Amino acid sequence: MQHIYAKENNHWVTLTLPPAEEPIHNGASVTWGDAGTIFTPAFWRARYWMDIDLGGLTKKTYKLGHSLQEETVACLLGGYGITAESSMAYLERFKELDIFSKEKISQDDIWEILQTPLLISGSKQRYRFWKNKGIYIHAVLTTHKNRLKKLEYFKGDPKEFREELMQMKGIGIKTASWITRNWLDTNSIAVIDIHIHRALQLLGMNAPLPNSDSKYLQSETYFIDLANAINTSVNFFDILVWDYMRKFNGLALKRLNQKGLALPQIV
Fold first, then answer.
1. Rounded to the nearest 5°, which phi and psi values hold at 12?
2. How far apart are CA 71 and CA 184, in angstroms?
3. Which of 147, 166, 184 is the last residue of a domain?
4. How many domains are there within the chain?
5. Which of 155, 184, 213 represents a domain boundary (last residue)?
6. What is the C-alpha to C-alpha distance for residues 108 and 221, in angstroms, rounded to an integer?
C-alpha cells in the first residue's frame, strides 16, 4: 500500500492508496502508479486529497456569472488561445460597463469593448478573436436572452441542458459542457480541453482527440471513469487536473514526446 501524509488542523492525517502496480479498477490496463510520480492516477488522487479534500483549495462554487447569461458570456470569452486571465479581465469589463442589464446593445458596442486593450498580467492586451467571439456574445445578449432566462431554472438531465446550449450560435460541445458543469454543478459532464486530453494520454488511456462531438463524448467517458475509479468528484477533479496541467504544460509536452505520442492539435 501507499501512504501519503499531510497536516490538517495541526494533526497528521493519512491517505492510503493501493500499490502502484494495482489496476485502478478491475480489468483496467492503467495502474495506480507511484503517488510521488507526476501524472499518475495516484499522483492525481493525492493532489485531490491535499488540495480539495483537506480544504487547501476550498470547495467554493466555480460559477463565473450571477445569471446564466453571464455564465454563458464568461465561458464564451474563454477557450483555446485565450488565457484565463484575459477572459476574466474582459468579463469584469463587461460587468463594469453594466452590459448585462442593458435593454439594447449593438454588435459594434461589443466589438469596441473587445478591441479595447486592458491591463492583463502587467501589460496592455487586446482580446484575441474579438470579431467571431463578439458575434456570439452579442447573440447571447440579444437573440438568446429569453431562452437563457428560461434555462436558468432548469432541473432536468444536464445532458439535455447541454444540448439546448449547443443550439445557440458559437456554442460547441466543449463550451456547452463548461457552462453546464459550472451552472448545474454536475458530475455527469466534464470539460475536456487540450490539457485534460494530455493528462489522459500521459496515463496511457486511449482517449480520442475531442475534435468532433462523438470523440468529445468518448474522451469525456474516459475522464469520468477515471475520476470515479480514483474516488474523486468529476466537477472538481477536472478543474484540478486542468490547473496542474496548465502549470506543468512544458513538462507534459516533454513527457508526451518521450512516449513517442504525436502532439495533438488544439480543437
1. -75, 135
2. 11
3. 184
4. 2
5. 184
6. 40
Which structural domain range is residue 244 located in? 2-59+190-258
One-letter-per-residue 3-state SS of 174-206: HHHHHHHHHHHCCCCCCCCCHHHHHHHHHCCCC
Secondary structure of 25-47 in HEC code, one letter for each residue:
CCCCCCECCCCCCCCCHHHHHHH
- CA 16, 20, 24, 25 torsion: positive or negative? negative
Residue 76 lies in a domain: yes
Give the tens place of pLDDT for each residue, 90-149. 999 999 999 999 988 999 999 999 999 999 888 999 999 999 999 999 999 999 999 999
Residues 75 and 182: their CA atoms lie apart, in Å, by 9
This prediction's pTM: 0.88
Q: What is the CATH number of the domain that holds 155?
A: 1.10.340.30
